[in-house]
């Protein structure tokens, strides 16, 4: 059994209300509930954390490394394009990471086209809405089985 951290950045606590035409109608709580059930089914433990504060996300990454997490599924949200500090925390955690985005940043405004995380991610999943999180969790499971 692996311990997987699902980490979500700013404004994702507003899913279901915020720009539903871009981000969908499903709430973060509903996404997390479904992913926890899937993780249980796959034989893993899923820990979930969301914050609008960069320093809290960094502290959670530090804690994840210290508590023996095996993988990171991360939607840095707007911090994708701005946070070198979060990038450094991901690298310091030494956790393999799946980068997830509900929308496709490359199909949006030009300032969203650069990610500080994509080059350090095992894979990037974008544009699939909430289903992208399931894809990431299944991909992590596949990677774990291949490594075993």
TrEMBL record:
Gene3D superfamilies: Dehydroquinase, class II. It catalyses: 3-dehydroquinate = 3-dehydroshikimate + H2O. Its EC number is 4.2.1.10. Pathway: Metabolic intermediate biosynthesis; chorismate biosynthesis; chorismate from D-erythrose 4-phosphate and phosphoenolpyruvate: step 3/7. The keyword Amino-acid biosynthesis applies. The record marks 18 as: Transition state stabilizer. One of its GO terms (molecular function) is 3-dehydroquinate dehydratase activity. Substrate binds at residues 75, 81, 88, 102-103, 112. Belongs to the type-II 3-dehydroquinase family. Catalyzes a trans-dehydration via an enolate intermediate. This is 3-dehydroquinate dehydratase. The lineage of its organism: Bacteria, Pseudomonadati, Pseudomonadota, Gammaproteobacteria, Natronospirales.
């Amino acid at each position: 059994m692996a311990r997987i951290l699902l980490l979500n950045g700013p404004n994702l606590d507003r899913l279901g209300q915020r720009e539903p035409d871009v981000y969908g109608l499903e709430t973060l709580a509903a996404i997390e509930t479904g992913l926890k059930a899937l993780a249980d089914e796959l034989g893993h433990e899923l820990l979930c954390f969301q914050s609008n504060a960069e320093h809290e996300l960094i502290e959670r990454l530090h804690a994840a490394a210290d508590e023996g997490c095996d993988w990171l599924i991360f939607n840095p949200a707007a911090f994708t394009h701005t946070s070198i500090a979060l990038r450094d925390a991901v690298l310091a955690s030494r956790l393999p990471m799946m980068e997830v985005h509900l929308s496709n940043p490359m199909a949006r405004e030009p300032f969203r086209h650069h990610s500080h995380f994509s080059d350090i991610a095992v894979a990037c999943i974008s544009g699939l809405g909430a289903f992208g999180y399931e894809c990431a969790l299944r991909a992590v499971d596949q990677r774990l089985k291949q490594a075993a």
